[in-house]
Amino acid sequence: MSDKCIRSVPASAMAGYQDLSDFERGVIIGAREMGHSISEVAMKFGFSRTTISRVYREYRVSGKTSNFRHRCGRKKTLKELDHWRQTRILKRDRRSILPQIATDFNDGASTSVSVRTVQRTVINMGSQSRRPTRVPLLTAPYNALRLSWARQPYHWTANDWKHVAWSDESHFQLYRTDARVRVWRQHQ
């Protein structure tokens, strides 16, 4: 095998699986067409013998050198329109839980999706589940009541403060049964 037409590829280039580029596929096919064996081509380019034989077999069957496998793995269950529907469901009720979102989505969809798929999609769309911040309603009468309550103990003596029960309470739970509401928010 002559070194003029084929260049060597370091072993580090072989690390990890990647789809071959059209150029790499063309070089493999060209080397095989020139009469080089599968082992020779594999040694020079650093691809496995299986890859070399598969690429050349695909070329002989179809006559094309381009990659047929544009995307590896399973196809996406949800399309762009489905993402739009999920966004609409989330905005309609931000306090809905994932099983409820999945049920609402599956009511009108032609494909049925799991709760885990809904969760992954919602997170990938940029939303996350957060506890809502508790903010008191600050109206003018409410502000006046709060101010009067805060001013009551202003003139208390040390003896008056002895009659106040001080506590350092903490809330502990073993399981998530406190029924706290969560809302869906966009990433900031």
Automatic annotation (TrEMBL):
UniProt xrefs under Gene3D superfamilies: Ribonuclease H-like superfamily/Ribonuclease H, Winged helix-like DNA-binding domain superfamily/Winged helix DNA-binding domain
Record domain Tc3 transposase DNA binding: where: 20-54
Q: Name one GO biological process term.
A: DNA integration
- Pfam entry (one): HTH_Tnp_Tc3_1
Q: Which domain of life is it from?
A: Eukaryota
Task: Tell me where it resides.
Answer: Nucleus
The UniProt entry's GO CC annotations, sorted and at most eight, read:
nucleus
InterPro entries (alphabetical): Homeodomain-like_sf, RNaseH_sf, Tc3_transposase_DNA-bd_dom, Transposase_Tc1-like, WH-like_DNA-bd_sf
Which molecular function GO terms apply here?
A: DNA binding
Ranges of residues in domain Transposase Tc1-like:
88-152
Protein known as: Transposase Tc1-like domain-containing protein
Q: Which organism is it from?
A: Araneus ventricosus (Orbweaver spider)
